[in-house]
Specification:
With 314 residues, this protein is an all-alpha fold. It has one domain: Rhopdopsin 7-helix transmembrane proteins. 73% of the residues lie in helices and 3% in strands. The chain has a three-stranded mixed sheet with strand order 2-1-3. Helix 2 runs antiparallel to helix 4, helix 8 packs antiparallel against helix 9 and helix 9 packs antiparallel against helix 11. The termini are far apart.
Length: 314
């Protein structure tokens, strides 16, 4: 493997490429990882594409909840596609390099879809809060126009947030080598290679990125608190257990997603460990997008009914 170091370059624009070492440098382990991740990627693609298709074709799924689930599936496809194809290619190729432009494009799209995912989870929690706690006003509060505005806001804010982070990264100088011990171009490992003062980058990550994540997390938690309080008022024990089981699945994914993001990004750069923490993005950037169609929809009777109807037509 040809690992090239920058030769006396003064600014980031003269850096032509980075080297992605991936999750392992062992050839045998790389083949195993290739098999594992191509299976996960295919499951994520098929699951999310199937969900989008079912929501589009079945009129019974033309509701706010499934509108947001469809948006989440689009985000999850983009989320995994921003990193996994390049990672799979690197496992089979001797050349592990990625161009400067491709590297920062990868960073932009990964952060964009991550931010949109955070916000969409909060929007979905709000939708369930309105449906369970204010059912009489659900048709008004979650009509077509408010839903479209909520989804559009999540996309615009997520893209704008990513644009700020990526722009600040792109003007840094990188003189500490070009080797990233990671499977994609992420903020923390890139900051480790910079010889510029990264205080502004870290401050923006804590403030802007932290505000996006914490506001979505807080909104999600508050919504679920009210949902749980409403569930506790259900008279039958069987009804409460069924409702709590559904909430537990949602809260498990939300907790895993937000906890890994908070731990990976919202901490000082000096505490970052590339060898330990490059595994964390696998959880929230690859595994969770694969699980989302199963946890949020494929266990739903309406989606199963739509799937049976589609299969019967074929």
């Amino acid at each position: 493997m040809d690992v090239r170091e920058p030769k006396g370059r003064e600014n980031s624009t003269s850096m032509t490429e980075f080297i992605l070492l991936g999750l392992s440098s062992n050839p045998e382990e790389q083949l195993i990882l290739f098999g594992v991740f191509i299976a996960i990627y295919l499951v994520a693609l098929m699951g999310n594409m199937l969900l989008i298709l079912l929501i589009s074709l079945d009129s019974r799924l033309h509701t706010p909840m499934y509108f947001f689930l469809g948006n989440l599936s689009v985000v999850d496809i983009g989320y995994t596609s921003s990193t996994v194809p390049k990672m799979l290619t690197n496992y089979l190729a001797r050349d592990k390099s990625i161009s400067w432009t491709s590297c920062f494009s990868q960073t932009f799209f990964f952060i964009s879809f991550g931010g949109i995912e955070c916000l969409m989870l909060g929007v979905m929690a709000y939708d369930r809060y309105v449906a369970i706690c204010h059912p009489l006003h659900y048709g008004t509060l979650m009509s077509q126009q408010p839903c479209a505005r909520l989804a559009a806001a999540a996309w615009v804010i997520g893209l704008a947030n990513s644009a700020v982070h990526t722009s600040l990264l792109s003007i840094l100088s990188f003189c500490r080598g070009n080797v990233l011990r990671h499977f994609f171009c992420d903020i923390p490992p890139l900051l480790r290679l910079s010889c510029s003062d990264t205080w502004i980058n870290q401050a923006v990550t804590f403030t802007l990125g932290g505000s996006l994540v914490s506001s979505s997390l807080l909104g999600t938690l508050v919504s679920y608190i009210y949902i749980v309080m409403a569930i506790l008022r259900i008279r039958t024990r069987a009804g409460r257990l069924k409702a709590f089981s559904t909430c537990a699945s949602h809260l498990t994914v939300v907790s895993l997603y937000f906890s890994t993001i908070l731990f990976n990004y919202l901490r000082p750069n000096s505490t970052y460990s590339q060898d330990q923490d490059r595994v964390l993005p696998v959880l929230y950037g690859i595994i969770i997008p694969m699980l989302n169609p199963i946890i949020y929809s494929l266990r739903n009777k309406e989606v199963k009914g739509a799937l049976r109807k589609a299969l019967a037509r074929s």
